[in-house]
Amino acid sequence: MPTTQTSQATQSPRVGFIVPFAGEWPNWSQLFFESCRHNPIVDVILLCQQVPPFALPGNVRVIQISEAEIHDRLEKATGLKLGTISPRKICDFRPYYGLAFADILKDYEFWGYCDVDMMFGALSKLLTDEVFQSMDILSAHNEMFVGHFTILRNIEKINRLGFEIEKWQERCQSPIGWHLDEQEFTYVADKNQAIRWIKSKDLASELNGNFARFGITFKFYGDVAYLIPPDDPVVKWENGSVYFENSAGKVTEVLYVHFMGTKRWWHWLFFNKRSALQQAHYFSRIGYNGVQHPLELHQFPWQQLYYLQCGLYHTKAAVGALLRRLLPMSAFVALRRRILKI
Hints:
With 342 residues, the protein is of the alpha/beta class. Helices cover 28% and strands 20% of the residues. It has eleven helices and 17 strands.
């Protein structure tokens, strides 16, 4: 049986985010946990073998569970015989978490999936009683469910939607990730008129207001996903809220910042042991901190640092593509897991 460590409040939040995690916790994950501290409206449930070596807020539950048990739960939930499930492949099983972890989620009205390479903003500004009563699924996107922030009502009809995904058995059993938790899952829900799906406007439209129900995701070259026209903003987390400042100086509060593509060592040159204790955290195309205002991104030395970072990523991606062609899949996956932090 899994071991649970928690200091949960007497009245549980209505949402439980399920987060399986394998391996050692990266230092930057402290920022995620700090943002959870400011959002008692949700619980985050970590399914892992290694307890994070950081101080955790009361709404972060740690359930010590082996990868083998997670694997068994997913097999029972799907009725499939599954091969090795890599940390990235497990994202394909997110639509089935409501079934696989039903015992853990039984006291929650809603459950969700999210990533840890992010900082939540003020979630309570979106997750109101009115919204909870009017939704079955919520995603911080205007067209699809996103793997780093989607919430679903904890009922049988929603928990079994994953079985309506086209070729779901074949795709679940494939070693290749199919992003079933995002676009493929969206297709199914979009066809069902009885499902109440709350979604935002497009990102540019949301940023025209004072509070954007959309989050900010940094891609692998430091540009912001879904932002049209493109811009070079700085995003600040401060005291539980996230603020987007564009190159013209307009500031908009947003739902979260997701630093997905800026997790290489060169993006965290300005992160140290005391960083997690700071009251403000800045994110931009160069990564964490350093730059606090958008105009600085085009000045020395930040412009030059950005070009260097892009060159490093391009080289790493090119070497990875070459190894993928030369090595058998099993050897490539093993090697990739070993060097993933580089």
